[in-house]
Write a structure and sequence with these properties.
mainly beta
Length: about 160
């Protein structure tokens, strides 16, 4: 139940033509404490509750537990979530032996697109497609829990 992933910004829309699926995701957080986040998600026609632990020093791995729940349960729990519901499309793209999940955000986070790749080992090699931008693994401001509280539109460069 340890999740190992790396995150990258996306520098072009080229991933869309390579996508094998596109799913709308609406999600909120019952708890955004960095030591244990509790997420509620409706992904397509399924609901989920997920608990994530604190990330390691590099931000690449952390405990994750997820259970499917009904959409009705997820919808009811979303109403209890802390302020800042995320709305995004998730695209899945096969690249080599891996699948990139690319999240295109809307609402308060419109203009932000992030790609994630799950790995079996922190040092595992993987192919980087041309649309992949700068790595942001471990940068807390790109965590979904933080984007729900401090949206992209409010960032000052």
């Amino acid at each position: 139940m340890i999740e190992i992933e790396r995150k990258f910004l996306v520098k072009s829309d080229d991933y869309k033509s390579e996508a094998t699926s596109k799913t709308r995701i609406v999600q909120g957080f019952l708890n955004r404490d960095p030591s244990r986040t509790v997420r509620i998600r409706i992904k397509g026609d399924a609901g989920f509750i997920t608990v994530k632990g604190k990330s390691n020093a590099t931000g690449t791995s952390r405990f994750e537990w997820e259970k499917e729940i009904s959409v009705e349960e997820a919808d009811a729990l979303l109403k209890l979530c802390e302020k800042g519901i995320l709305d995004k499309y998730r695209y899945e793209i096969n690249v080599g032996n891996h699948v990139y999940e690319v999240d295109e955000f809307f609402g308060e986070n419109e203009g932000l697109t992030i790609a994630e790749i799950e790995l079996n080992d922190e040092n595992e090699s993987f192919q980087k497609p041309t649309w992949l931008g700068v790595e942001v693994t471990g940068e807390v401001k790109y965590y979904n829990s933080q984007l729900s509280e401090h949206p992209f539109k409010n960032w000052i460069d």
